Amino acid sequence: MPFQIAHLLFIALISLIACCTIMFVVWLWAKKIKNAGVVDVFWALNFPVITLITYFLSEGFETRKILICSIFLLAELRLGLHLWQRVIGHIDEEEGRYQQLRKEWGDKAERNFFFFFQFQAISNVLLAIPIFIITANPSPEISILEYIGLAIWAIAFIGEMVADQQLAAFKKDLENKGKVCDTGLWYYSRHPNYFFEWLTWMAYFIFALASPWGILAIISPAIILYLLTRVTGVPNNEEQNLRSKPEAYKKYQQTTSSFFLWGKKDG
């Protein structure tokens, strides 16, 4: 077991070096084009890099490795390509939340963005803990917990994809300029895409519970929940929406859950 833990730490270290290097190059590019929003794209695309490193270096049961690496790769490639279309499609225009950070940080913006980008690389590796644990599991049997994890993952994957498509379609309609998207899944939550992203990580945690040391995987949904609801997700998005459409968004806040999918509240 000590050897196995040492091997997991080795895989995590290689992954960290790879992610930090990628984010350093991305920071240089972001500095040149004055658009820090590209960090979102490569935060998602760092996970496929970690997946490949883990798959080839881990020593667990091959079928399980293929299963978890496939769904992890599929989810993060979908998210990365979605973000690529959103950010790269408007590469000359930095997203409002990053414009705001640039204003707040002033002449220290580029330095602070460097550390921000590196923090994203560190978060990539921390969030990948379930994958490190699962791919090290030598058991030749797929357990009921792993099947439950797969089922939850499928719901989360479809839910996030639908939420992203609904928002993209809403924004594409010029008649909706200045309005709030409150249809489909967005009727039940102000951030259904973030909710399903978190649910994806809960699925990995449940999947990991069937493996030795699997309880440690709780760190991933805990971190992603904190980041989405307290740091870079909901707070920044809410601030930007309140700046761009204050009255409509305040009304939306009064009637709709910020994260979980609940029924409407009285406004």
Plain-language structure description:
With 267 residues, the chain is mainly α. The chain contains 11 helices and no strands. It has helices spanning 2-33, 38-57, 62-88, 96-105, 109-127, 129-135, 144-172, 192-208, 219-231, 234-244, 246-255. The radius of gyration is 19 Å and the shape is globular.
What best-fitting shape do the alpha-carbon axes yield?
globular
> How many strand segments?
0
Mean pLDDT over all positions:
93
Low-confidence blocks of residues: none
Walk me through the topology.
Elements: H1 2-33, H2 38-57, H3 62-88, H4 96-105, H5 109-127, H6 129-135, H7 144-172, H8 192-208, H9 219-231, H10 234-244, H11 246-255
Organism: Pedobacter lithocola
Keywords: Membrane, Transmembrane, Transmembrane helix
Protein name: DUF1295 domain-containing protein
